[in-house]
Amino acid sequence: MHIYPDIPSTAPYPKRTHTCGELTPAHAGTHVTLTGWLLPERKVSKFMSFFPIKDSSGITQLVIRKGDADDHLAALSDVPVESTVAIEGQVHVRPEKSRRDEGTGQIEVQVDKFTLLNPAQCMPFIPSDNQTLVNEDLRARFRYLDLRRTALSDNIRKRSRVARIIRDTLHHDGFLEVETPLLLKSTPEGAREFLVPTRVGRSTAQQDGKDIPLFYALPQSPQQPKQLLICSGAVDKYFQIAKCFRDEDGRKDRQPEFTQIDLEMAFVSWGADKSYSRSDTWRVGGHEVRAVIERLVGRIWQQVEGITLPSSFRVITYNEAMTRYGSDKPDTRFALEIQDITPSLPSRARSSLENLGEIIEAIILRPSENNQFLRANDECNSQEESDTQSVITDSNMLNWLCDNRSINLKLSHDEHVLLNKTLGVSSGDTLWLSRRRKVPEGGSTALGRLRIRISELAHARGDYVPPTAPHFLWVTEFPLFTRADPDKEFLAHGRWSSTHHPFTAPMWQDIEAMYAGRTDQVRGQHYDLVLNGVEIGGGSVRVHDACMQEYIFSQVLQLSDSEKASFNHLLHALKCGAPPHGGIALGFDRLMAILCKTPTIRDVIAFPKTGAGTDILFKSPAAVNKDALYQYGIQPTHG
Amino acid sequence: MHIYPDIPSTAPYPKRTHTCGELTPAHAGTHVTLTGWLLPERKVSKFMSFFPIKDSSGITQLVIRKGDADDHLAALSDVPVESTVAIEGQVHVRPEKSRRDEGTGQIEVQVDKFTLLNPAQCMPFIPSDNQTLVNEDLRARFRYLDLRRTALSDNIRKRSRVARIIRDTLHHDGFLEVETPLLLKSTPEGAREFLVPTRVGRSTAQQDGKDIPLFYALPQSPQQPKQLLICSGAVDKYFQIAKCFRDEDGRKDRQPEFTQIDLEMAFVSWGADKSYSRSDTWRVGGHEVRAVIERLVGRIWQQVEGITLPSSFRVITYNEAMTRYGSDKPDTRFALEIQDITPSLPSRARSSLENLGEIIEAIILRPSENNQFLRANDECNSQEESDTQSVITDSNMLNWLCDNRSINLKLSHDEHVLLNKTLGVSSGDTLWLSRRRKVPEGGSTALGRLRIRISELAHARGDYVPPTAPHFLWVTEFPLFTRADPDKEFLAHGRWSSTHHPFTAPMWQDIEAMYAGRTDQVRGQHYDLVLNGVEIGGGSVRVHDACMQEYIFSQVLQLSDSEKASFNHLLHALKCGAPPHGGIALGFDRLMAILCKTPTIRDVIAFPKTGAGTDILFKSPAAVNKDALYQYGIQPTHG
Fold it and tell me: Residue A635 is nearest to which of B8, B12, B637, comparing CB atoms?
């Protein structure tokens, strides 16, 4: 049999008997056939070489004993690295000194025969070369080679495993997986949605006697279909690992298509009563959703990481999160807590702040207590944040507050002495100060952002090492409506927006306030799940009372009739005996990135897009020729 | 507590202790809380009523004993049917004579207290009314109510269960589930694809100094991503329950979005050799794919239907399927086989047919043998098919062939006598005759279509009852290229098309013929899975030799450079040590329709679209205003 080291085999070839990851000393003496990718040769002598052969399950060491130069096996040296081969040979236990405990390290296979299945002739880089990781663009363009790296293929494998744990757990809990449509209706306010023109059915829609183009839209989440499904009563507990879509400028590490673990349950609680034992901290409804997620996340960490999580996660209110940590997704793994120092101020200052509805808050770093963060703190000193910083020295002990540019308050000598005493301030401390509205708004405060910045700097310097155990946290009792979300303002045009979405139920204690028009006082039955300071999911109890939903649309959000129209079917479904219901969605990509300990979700997606939404492997998005567009009834604006 | 029979509860309500499907005599005496939908009252006396309460798990009978008219419980009679309620009460074993074995038929719950959760005030129809099924349009518009019907919700539940079996089986077999992109690249020939315009990144693409619109496309299948994934070596066995999209005129029971069970495997066989024991009938490669699917389908039927399927399914070649059944997806549950009568013709007629490359074939119905089909046969007689029919009577015994309009052959008296004898024709028989090209083309022949028509008529009449056991069948050895597919011709413009897709490998026995330009003689390593005459899936061994793939693109299919461009990354991946690989995709919707014994896939999809691609619940597709389109750089053709 002659060898053509550059011609793929296109004939029947020997069937593999084992994978490259499974042979052990128990197989010694067995004749095996392995298939896989050939890694670089290591020549032991003129007559003997080692070749590792790799497949997705592992690596096996091949031993080649060459006879004369015409020997069939000698040709293996001419086969390019990363080619696929089938080899036949016998399993041997390795000589004692070269045995390894990992993988197939106890054995080697002495090769009798090989078949070149497909030569690697065009490698832009060698993925098995762990020494040099080529640049990101090249790896993105040849993603199918980058995926050959174990670091990435391990992530893909782990993702499949976690998806399986999720499904097993939810099925076990009585959930049904139901697919909801991806070709949905565009919404008037669909600011970030993808449209999908269709050629079909166009002739039925006419304007001035002419066909008009028709569009579906891809969902940003299965929110409406899943609520309708639960309203139907067909399914008591729904879940789906669902694809969602968002056409937006590449924010940090987002993808235009992403995956959610989406679930919804009928007959969830509507706030706490005596039948819910943990009602002390969790005062919104949806206890059942909480319990499912805690069980689910617990099983994932148990099975994937071997870590036992607490059986229930800490709950804090939005208000507490904003007050103590300055963030609605606080990283509670470290302290550096914010304190409201208003109560320690003299009464004159207190009442002037109170009249303005403001407070003054501080992060106090004491050298004695905050060792890990001191150098990061100094670094912040020289940054933009420094305008809110007061480093206490002997000389400014009695005017650090007045000197702070962000505060604008005057204190007398005595008042300052008293304040220092109350706060326990001494020379060498650093105080970061901020004056803000007492009622927190939005996702973070100035000190909350600073707190994260100090921790990141300390982490980068190696001074602070976050604990390995994950910190899960529920945040509840968000304001139901907001005017402080710039992302929503361009649709709201000065009206109130829903902090999350318009279907979130108010806390029942606040229903009266809502109907009385005290919109800013209404808290929602919403819950966010936060892990290590990253929001990994959120959900809520939904409005099931059609009149209440209509009131929210019309009176609170002041939607126009056309804005309301796309919710008509939901309103009607509520009027047909919809059960109280609620749910949640977790970001699967983000969850996987955390489990794979990688900073970017691109590392846990088989074929991701760049931050700009471009796919450099498949070369999309791309221009489409005019004739093709014409079939959809559309043309470029600049023709 | 006062009752407002039309106001939903928006306060904490009692937590359910059990579902409506789980109570048994073992619960007798227990105080329970149930939540669900109230079904119509059945009054036993002035003081006692029965109400069934239903949730997705079942129905429980409630007993209401009313005191005086002011009694709280009396108000239950005013609650509209299909409202959601929470009831509290005690479980009793029913009096012996009213006990039923099904569901919760042994018990009833005597109600102490109820909470109206949400009244049903706007019901366009009552889904629990099994007597009258309202018209399809109304049910589609209010799908969320139609889903409340047990017939539909059972299908949704079964679909979730089957998806779970699929995943369990494939995970157990070592498959990984990997999500592939839905926002992909449009292809030049993308005749049926959906385009997705995007606002992001437009400014980077310019033509004549103007931004040009950019588009993704939704995949008709994950074919290219899954092949690239396998080429990467990251995954040895891939699967995905994948959403796919097709923008086409509503053919019979198709959906613009549909679901496939998609899989692909590395290192599949490339045709039979001695290591494959069943090589006698399955002569293409991909034995491993076959084995996985037979195991998978076997487990589904075992677990869902309690039916044990054969451990391997019958295999027939395309040629045999076309010859004996006139179809590439033959229904082999009944005989009515087609026979080639050319060999029985006199030699003169035979050679004239042979010169033309034609044959004459027949279906012969004998009253003695085809009892089930005789009345259907008579019915066909009066239809358009009658022009190929010869009913044998005493008077036409010797000219039935010559008289048949579809044949155009003359036989002498003696020749006819001999033919009758050879075929065993006697008076009263019916012969359906057809003259066709000897080499079969496309998906069916005239007699193949007639065969199905007769069976359908016989089935409709109740003369023929198909067996309950499912008949699975593999069809292999299809021609790799075709000119007989009208669906493809509008892209091919007279060139050869791939019968399935251009990545299908030729049978290795036919590679030489392919390179020699004998395109019509090349059979592909393709396999279709057919169930009861319905194609439920298909797959193939893929080309892994880049030169062969390039030859197919350029020399056989004669693709232009721009047509080839979208395959460049695949060609390159093949050059980087791609393993031999193959896979398959099964239509999940069709599979579920068969398992749910419903003729339409709409019954197994939670929120389906009409045959015309319209969603009358969500009201899509819909027009989009010009300003919104402008952001994507597109405008209507008729502006």
Answer: B637
Residues of B with Cβ-Cβ distance to A259 under 8 angstroms = 179
Can you give the pLDDT at residue A275?
60
Q: What is the pLDDT of residue A67?
A: 74
The reply to whether residue A181 touches residue B257, judged by beta carbons under 8 angstroms, is yes
More reliable by pLDDT, A74 or B265: B265
**Chain B residues whose beta carbon lies within 8 Å of the beta carbon of residue A235:** 56, 153, 156-157
Q: How far is B442 from chain A (nearest CA, A)?
A: 26
Long-range contact list for B596-604, CB < 8 A, 24+ apart?
B596/B154, B596/B155, B596/B158, B596/B159, B598/B155, B599/B253, B600/B253, B601/B253, B601/B254, B601/B255, B601/B258, B602/B253, B602/B255, B603/B151, B603/B152, B603/B155, B604/B155, B604/B156, B604/B158, B604/B159
Q: Beta strands B237-245 and B257-266: pairing type?
A: antiparallel
Q: What is the mean pLDDT of residues A330-340?
A: 94
Q: B182 and A185 in contact by Cβ < 8 A?
A: no
Spatial distance between the Cα atoms of A146 and B236, rounded to a whole number of angstroms: 16
What mean pLDDT is reported for chain A? Answer: 91
* Helices and strands in chain B, H and E counts: 18, 25
Rounded CA gap, A520 and A81, in Å?
66
> What are the C-alpha distances in Å from B378 to residues A629, B365, B434, B454?
51, 11, 18, 9
β-bridge partners, B37: B54, B84
Question: Which one-letter amino acid corresponds to residue A457?
Answer: L
Question: Exposed, middle or buried by CB within 10 Å (0-12, 13-18, 19+), for B408?
Answer: exposed
CA distance A360 to chain B (A): 37
pLDDT tens-place string over residues B519-564: 999 999 999 999 999 999 999 999 999 999 999 999 999 999 988 9
C-alpha dihedral sign at A256, A262, A266, A267: negative
**CB-based contact B317:B281 (threshold 8 Å):** no
Q: Which residues of B touch A187 (CB under 8 A)?
A: none
Are A580 and B117 an interchain contact pair (Cβ–Cβ within 8 Å)? yes
- Asked if the Cβ–Cβ distance from B82 to A577 is below 8 Å, we say yes
Q: What's the rounded Cα separation, in Å, for the pair B246 and B268? A: 29
| A479 CA: distance to closest CA in chain B (Å) | 18
pLDDT digits (tens, 9 = 90+) for B297-356: 999 999 999 999 999 999 999 999 999 999 999 999 999 999 999 999 999 899 999 999
Q: What are the chain B neighbours of A515 within 8 Å (beta carbons)?
A: none
Q: Which of B577, B606, B636 sits opposite A178 (nearest CB)?
A: B606
Residue A1 has what pLDDT? 40
| Partner-chain contact B229 A142, CB within 8 Å | no
ipTM, interface predicted TM-score of the complex: 0.94
Q: Which residues of A touch B229 (CB under 8 A)?
A: 144, 147, 606-607
Burial string for A24-52 (b: 16+ CB within 10 Å, else e) reads eeebeeeebbbbbbbbebeeeeeeebbbb
Beta strands in B192-292 (DSSP E): 194-198, 206-207, 210-211, 214-218, 237-245, 257-266
pTM of the shown model: 0.94
Q: Which residues of A164-193 are buried (b: 16+ CB within 10 A; e: fewer)?
A: bbbbbbbbebebbbbbbbbbbbbbbbbbeb
pLDDT number for residue B1: 40
All structural domains of chain B: 25-118 (2.40.50.140), 153-316+473-627 (3.30.930.10), 334-464 (3.30.1360)
Is residue B29 within 8 A of residue B90, CB to CB? The reply is yes
Q: What is the CA radius of gyration of chain A?
A: 31
What is the CA angle A126-A130-A132, rounded to 5?
75
Q: Chain B residues with CB inside 8 Å of A233's CB? A: 36-37, 54-56, 147-148, 153
